[in-house]
Amino acid sequence: MSAAFETVLALGDDALIAAQRLAEWCSRAPDVEEDIALANLALDQLGTARLLLSYAGELEGAGRDEDALAFLRDDHEFRNALLVELPNHHPEPPSPRSGDFAITMAKLLFLAAYQRDRYRQLAAGPDRDLAAIAAKAAKESAYHLDYATLWTLRLGDGTQESHARMQRAVDEIWPYTYELFDDNDLRPGWLAAVEPVLAEATLTRPPEGGWQPRGGRAGRHTEHLSRLLAEMQVVHRAHLGARW
Fold it and tell me: CA-CA 20 to 30 A from 227: which of 157, 166, 201, 235?
């Protein structure tokens, strides 16, 4: 496969899986306003995923459209970063299965800062089709970053409990950020965007180095992705070729 196809596919998979995780908050968010806000963020990611996966299908030239790429691939064929497939809750009790809002905000803060800069980079690139998609997505990612920033500040510099939960979320998600930068040079700028937010939120930034889990870009995923895909793909696979 071409490098262009792999790049677009990975970005599309990031957006698709991020959308699915955000959508899991529907009817479970802390309040009605955030329920709607998170659903809108999910729709932004889904819209970008559709554009990217459709374009990836064109680049591949194998007759697969966005639906085929989204619903008819197994987990080892996905190229999303591990960060986006992580569940909305901590890996062990007593975290509720419905989700921990701090986990989602940490994931969103780190992902949105990366996506904004990556899309801006591609918007200035030579591929006109990809540049058009990226220019639109960059604007949405900037809003996602603002939203996550406000909540990180509110939780980090809030009560003793909210601070502790936000710090725990940052510590747990941070190691998964390294994989985002394996194919680009954007980490210094990403750090420049994220570090001031953590500092203002009175959160301790984890040290650089240490454990750096990888594998998503090569199709080696956590068990969480297969479970997510089973739920996301079940209707399409049960009714192949169905039309409304």
Answer: 166
Q: What is the CA radius of gyration of the chain?
A: 17
Cα–Cα distance, 39 to 175 (Å, whole number): 27
How far is it, in rounded angstroms, from Cα 36 to Cα 27?
9
Whether pTM > 0.90 for this model: the answer is yes
Q: Which domains does the chain have, with CATH numbers?
A: 3-238 (1.20.1260.10)
Q: State the CB neighbour count (10 A cutoff) for residue 133.
A: 24
Count Cβ atoms below 10 Å from residue 33 Cβ, excluding itself.
9
Among 154, 174, 155, 171, which residue's Cα sits nearest to residue 163? 155
* pLDDT of 95 higher than 60: no
Band the pLDDT of 31: cuts 50, 70, 90: confident
Q: Which strand (E) or helix (H) includes residue 30?
A: none
What does the chain come to in residues?
244
